[in-house]
Amino acid sequence: MPRVFSGIQPTGDPHIGNYFGAMRNYVRLGEEYGKNSIYCVVDLHAITNPAAYDPKTLAQRTFEMAVANFAAGLDPEKVVFFVQSQVPEHQELSWVFTALTPVGELERMTQYKDKAEQLESIPAGLLMYPVLMAADILLYKADTVPVGEDQTQHIELTRALARKFNHAYGETFPEPKAVYARDALRIPGVDGQGKMSKSKGESSTIGILEPLDSIWQKLRVAPTDPARVRRSDPGDPDKCLIGDYHKLFSDLPTIETVYEGCRTAGIGCVDCKKMLMQGITRELTPLQERAEGLRANPDWVRDALATGARQAREIARPVMEEVREKAGF
Ligand code: ADP
Ligand code: NA
């Protein structure tokens, strides 16, 4: 049976990269796959990066990440949505895969290298992160994984582990494929320093639940095409992150107006940013209002997650039993 799985870390406030790159696809695929679409707040992943983990705030961040997904349109009646640590089989399967994974392959993962580079002492969990991710996906025998482009290498490893397990212990797992949001493969950070990411901190992100005036303060100082020094210089909107964001938030006539206006110096960067802010306001206001309603009803959120965990475990348990039997324990 075709099945979808994806996870999102509660390492910080969800941002427009998460939203357009992943969360909107959760909702879309949920319409198609129903209870065979399984989504997870991966709190056990979040603890592998000491720079982004604080035990005092983890539970609150997990709650907020759930709220954000519900506010973005995920319906817990239609899909399976839960918190990773509530389904212990993720860790159990992860250990089985650990035994099948060469350390060298993990050391070559670019996300690992980027994060490890900034740390004095590297936790083994950071190295093992992609193994746990493979377990997350394969525990549900998922074949479709909606993610951003940054996860390509991890999905490749998941496929390799599925093949390895099948070869060693008999046909068990499908080889899952990544599916990407075509227009949001890798959304740049608002600070102009590469990919937008929670783990880089708030200077890089535009949060989907962030107050609109705070978003505007970031946009106001965001870098634009560096070749456009004076207001009268023409610019290249394809080399500008504001141009990238317009494609996510603005309607077609607005996109045409600002792209043409930038190329001809017809409009300045501040006006272009103001027009972007209108699109952001239109998209995020209803979402933020729904989030407020959910925060006022925390029991509903927790109940939905507990139900999700029970549904996930019903799928996970027999798969884990099959694994135990095939692996000889
Ligand atoms: P982050 O890198 O911000 O900590 P996660 O690791 O929790 O985010 O990833 C959650 C999902 O969001 C993943 O599918 C990831 O590929 C996607 N994603 C993260 N950042 C971006 C981005 N800048 N553009 C597109 N997709 C992204
Ligand atoms: Na990431």
Q: What report would you give on this structure?
A:
- The protein has 329 residues and is mainly α.
- The chain has 2 domains: 4-187 and 297-327, Rossmann fold; 211-290, Tyrosyl-Transfer RNA Synthetase (Orthogonal Bundle), CATH 1.10.240.
- Helix content is 54%, strand content 6%.
- The strands form 2 sheets. It has a 3-stranded parallel beta sheet with strand order 1-2-3, with helices on both faces. It has a two-stranded parallel sheet with strand order 4-5.
- Strand 1, helix 1 (16-33) and strand 2 form a beta-alpha-beta unit.
- The chain is globular, with a radius of gyration of 21 Å.
- The two termini are 27 Å apart.
- Bound molecules: adenosine-5'-diphosphate and sodium ion.
- Sodium ion binds next to loops.
